[in-house]
Structure formats: structure tokens, C-alpha cells
Amino acid sequence: MDDELRNRLWSALKLVLWDRWSPTGFYGGQSEDAKQIELLVAKLWLHYFKEPVDTIPEFQPGYSSSAYNVIRTQFFESEWWQAYDLIEFLIKNSPDNWSESLKPFINDLLEQENAAYRVVGEEVAEITSEYESESVETALSDSSPQVATHLSRALELLSDRQQPDYRNSIKESISAVESTCQKISGNSGATLNTALLRIKEVHSFHPAFEQALKKLYGYTSDTGGIRHALTEQNFEPTYSDGKFMLVACSAFINFLWTKASELEA
Fold first, then answer.
1. Which of 83, 172, 209, 216 yields a CA-CA distance of 20 to 30 A from 47?
2. What is the pLDDT of residues 107-143, one digit of tens each?
3. Does the model's pTM come out above 0.90?
């Protein structure tokens, strides 16, 4: 993260979030936005800085010891990945309408500065392809809560900039596919084959396409696959493996839901 990108990202945070704060009025009243900012700051102190909340100074920008300046200093003096972590925390903990304004603003800046990261869901992930991010976003928003939980966890494990866990990210991605199959079939024990058989009652697949879907699923489920205990024969997945499975499984889930909706039509 070079200085220009860091400067622009902070400006986005200031324009979308921090500028909403205003001091208490003459008669003691405070705007709802200001209250939300102070709540957000309290969450930062408690969960991000992990400092006692009774040490939070007044937010007031312009004062060297203010909460605003503490946050600003942290953003500009931290490692690059810590700056992304702060952005991620703010996206996850701001009011929904603020986050929805912040995410495209941040992504536009990341794209303009040719950064290797984008906001996908609520994570800052090393995914720059618009198709890939849209596929994951669609699967997150259009799936059942259980499926979305698996995908969110897969994205979180993949995007961890300190200790990424590609193996478990892949497990969560394929678990999202399983949950989709179970939801579509109405069978809590359903497998991919069960869901495909149900969909094939109305829609036919090209045999090669069907086999491709099954082989993708089998990649994680055979005796040497990702979901089994580690042995000397197991390979250790990399970022590219985890990213491929997240995007492929998201596209697979979107395909299954689309076909299921056509089946019900």
C-alpha cells in the first residue's frame, strides 16, 4: 500500500464515516449520526484496539489526543495489512447503509490505484476480477443463511492477511455447495448427486458438464482430498487453490439456485 492509496482510503473513511460526527449542541442534544459514530468508536476500542472503554477520549477532530486522531494515527502508521484490517472492521461494524456507501467507494479507489485487493462481502480480499467478486457477492446475497455463513467463513479464512487457512477455506466453500444441495432437495442429508438428479427431472445437462460438476465436488471428498485427515500423500493448498474453489463454488451455487428456480417455474 503506497502513500497515495493510503491517503485516498483514509479520505473515503473520513467522507463516509467520520464527517458524520458533530459535537453536542448548546442544549445538550446530539445527532443520531454522531451517536452512531461514538458507538462505532466504542466498538473499535473494545474489539479492535482491545483497550478499556473508559479510556476513550472525546472524538473531536483537531485535538491531538482525540479519539479521531488516535484512529487516524493508527491507520497511517500501521502496516499495510493493518490498514486493510481497520477498513474491514469498520465495514462490518458500521450501520448497513453506511457500509453500503463505503464499499463501492473503497473498491473504486482500489481499482484506480491498481491495488491487489477488493472488498468482497465484508472482507478485503485479494480478488480483483469483477466477474469473480460478483459471483461471490451474488452467492452471498441470494443464498440461504446457512449457505451464506459457509461462504462468508470461506472468504474470511482466505482473506486473513496474517494467518490464511486455505485448507479450511476450501472446506467451507464445498460445505456451502452441500448446504445448497440440501436446501434445493429438501433433504438434510442430500449430496450433490441428489440435487442434480432432482434438477435433471426438468432440465437436462450435457454429460461432460455434469461430470465436471461432480469432479469438482470429488476434488475435496475423495480419500486424499481436502476434507480428509492429513497424510503424507496430501497436498497443501495455496491461495490460488482457495480462491479458485471459492469462486467456482460460488458460481456453482448460483447455477444450482437458477436451475432450481426454473424447475419451480
1. 172
2. 999 999 988 889 988 888 888 778 888 888 888 888 7
3. no
